[in-house]
Specification:
The protein is α+β, with helices and mostly antiparallel strands. It contains 5 helices and 8 strands. Helix 1 packs across helix 3. The two termini are 21 Å apart.
């Protein structure tokens, strides 16, 4: 796995993916706190101060370095505003495996932005960081997230349950191997 100490923003047809900045915290907090978004996510804190602290901590690492997630803010090139955020993290104890996560603001869902952003992040993980496998997890109830994983070529690998007291959470794990990736 390679480290990208000189990360340059990723540019797609409609989006700019850049490292998240502390000033993004208010916007990220607003959509992450939305009950329809939050119910599918596993963040401990969604308040602006908590999000800001996470961004500051993440900015101490370069993409490809171990130690946790790296967050990228997703901006619309025409809207010049934040439409969501995506992230990546090395999978602990699994050389060559990168996990990706993604959240789009409800105001911008259903426009293909998540698919476009995740596709760009997968290309970056393979081409720049040298990943062999890119992995995504989702709630089994989060049909939109599952569709994004499928559209970027990921395959369902596992369906599993986690128990938290009396509550049961069902998740899915998707993966894409370098040799199975879709043509650009």
């Amino acid at each position: 796995m390679r480290v990208d100490a000189d990360f340059e923003p990723l540019v797609t047809e409609r989006l700019l993916l850049r490292r998240s900045r502390p000033e993004d915290a208010e916007a990220i907090s607003a959509y992450r706190s939305d009950p329809e978004v939050h119910r599918y996510q596993g963040w401990d804190r969604t308040d602006a101060e908590g999000v800001r602290a996470e961004i500051v901590e993440m900015n101490g690492r370069a993409p490809g370095e171990p130690g946790g997630w790296i967050q990228f803010s997703v901006e619309g090139r025409e809207t010049n505003g934040l439409v969501g955020d995506i992230g990546l993290s090395l999978a602990d104890g699994e050389p060559g495996v990168i996990k990706v996560g993604y959240t789009m603001s409800p105001k911008f869902q259903g426009r293909g932005y998540a698919t476009e952003a995740v596709g760009a992040l997968i290309g970056y993980a393979f081409d720049t960081l040298g990943a062999d496998v890119v992995r995504a997890f989702a709630s089994a109830e989060n049909i939109a997230s599952i569709r994004v994983a499928e559209k970027v070529g990921m395959q369902l690998m596992e369906r599993y349950e986690r128990r938290h007291g009396d509550e049961v959470w069902t998740g899915v794990r998707f993966e894409l191997r370098r040799e199975d990736r879709l043509p650009a």
